[in-house]
Amino acid sequence: MLCVALIAPIPSRAQETSAGKFHVNAQRLQGTLEKLSEFGRNPEGGVTRLGFSETELAAREYVIGLMKQAGLQVRVDPAGNIFGAQAGSDKLPILLFGSHIDSVLHGGNFDGALGSLAAIEVIRALNDGSVKTRHPMEVVIWTNEEGNHFGLTTLGSGVASGELGPEILERKDDQGLTLADWLRRYGQDPAHLTDARIARGTLSAFVELHIEQGPNLEQGKIPIGIVQGIVGLKRWMCVVSGFANHAGTTPMDRRKDALAAASKDVLAVREVVRAEAGRQVGTVGFVKVEPGAVNVIPGRVEFPVELRDLDTAKIDRMWQRVQEKFKRTDAEENVETRCTPLDDVEPANADPSVKGAISDAAKSLGFATVDLPSGAVQDAQKVARIAPMGMIFVPSRDGISHSPKEFTSWQDCANGAEVLYRSMLLLDNRLDSR
Ligand SMILES: [Zn+2]
Predict the structure, then answer these.
(1) Measured in angstroms, how far is the CA atom of residue 238 from the centroid of ligand 1?
(2) What are the CA-CA distances from residue 232 to residues 2, 143, 179, 270 (Å)?
(3) What is the pLDDT of residues 390-433, one digit of tens each?
(4) Which among 89, 96, 231, 359 could bridge 308 via Cys, Cβ 3.0 to 4.6 Å?
(5) Separation of CA 173 and ligand 1 centre (Å)
(6) From the CA of 20, how far away is ligand 1's center (Å)?
(7) How far is the CA of 396 from the centre of ligand 1 (A)?
(8) What is the C-alpha to C-alpha distance for residues 279 and 267, in angstroms, rounded to an integer?
(9) 167: how many CB neighbours lie within 10 A of its CB?
(10) pLDDT tens-digit readout, 114-172
(11) Are 413 and 26 in contact, with CB atoms under 8 Å apart?
(12) How many CB atoms lie within 10 A of CB 37?
């Protein structure tokens, strides 16, 4: 799976590699990223800039201003997604690229922000070089990707891809405001929400630059990751039924201890996932123990199991083994475990032509690359339903994200932006051939 294309030292100075000058302006990109980080800045560093908040609204105004300065035609769709368009010379489907500017609670300065501002920087670089494209180019800022507000992740791209519809409008936040209320605050008419849907064929491709949010690139000292796809996930809720009884008077061999059994189950999940080769992950995120008293044997335990991988068949295979282990525990511990499906999200594969363009763009700069999955949810996952997509990853220091400690060096930011610039031009050249 590891395919290192070309080992080249990372250039020490921004804007220069052995393969020539950068087209994007690293300092200008840094300047806009620093400015954006002022919107919702926390005392401990990083930002809290939730989708649908006064803070985000102000940040959107800033970004819209940048788009206009870059000569883009700006429009906002009824889901609040911001588009900045530049005409192409031919009548062709749109080449779309961008990311999101909302954050989680106490998030960092790079997640989403880099891909959004790098997309605008690419347009500025095209203008600087008077480069004309065949395709219309559009920068997109998707609404409420993180979904901390309203509990709906990838809201904007979800609506655009047709996955979400008017059923979300009456969702209330903890202030009692509905999503429809917030859309009105954002100047939109919620009655027209589904007008934000993008029909298949409208887009030639979608490309997103993003921080890796994991440790692989930094660990391998590889500047550019080519995303194979966004992993799918399946979740189940499991209930272990034992018997709650007196902790002092029930002999050890007569117990039906649901927590002792669940403890074996938690470790069984880890064992099964670790036994397979690859980058799959499996997690038990919490346990709820009943009755939860110091002097009562636990009679009932509830816990979720989550498995993620790019390959659905592998997820199913691991789940089969997990269930076999649970059955063995049931027999050993004299309890009964039942699991019911909770979530099922299909993996989204990146398009070979987009991956090829990203790979060639990185090669032209002499950058080593590695193919890797995205374990995190992304807007590109939703867009994959309506258009070919691909993602470029750059390193995250210590693999930390969704934290004030989230950091990507300015050089890595510039590298990613330049790979994005070159990828967009390669796609403009290669897709929808004359
Ligand atoms: Zn993100």
Answers:
(1) 30
(2) 20, 22, 27, 18
(3) 999 999 999 999 999 999 999 999 999 999 999 999 999 999 98
(4) 231
(5) 21
(6) 30
(7) 12
(8) 18
(9) 8
(10) 999 999 999 999 999 999 999 999 999 999 999 888 888 899 999 999 999 999 999 99
(11) yes
(12) 19
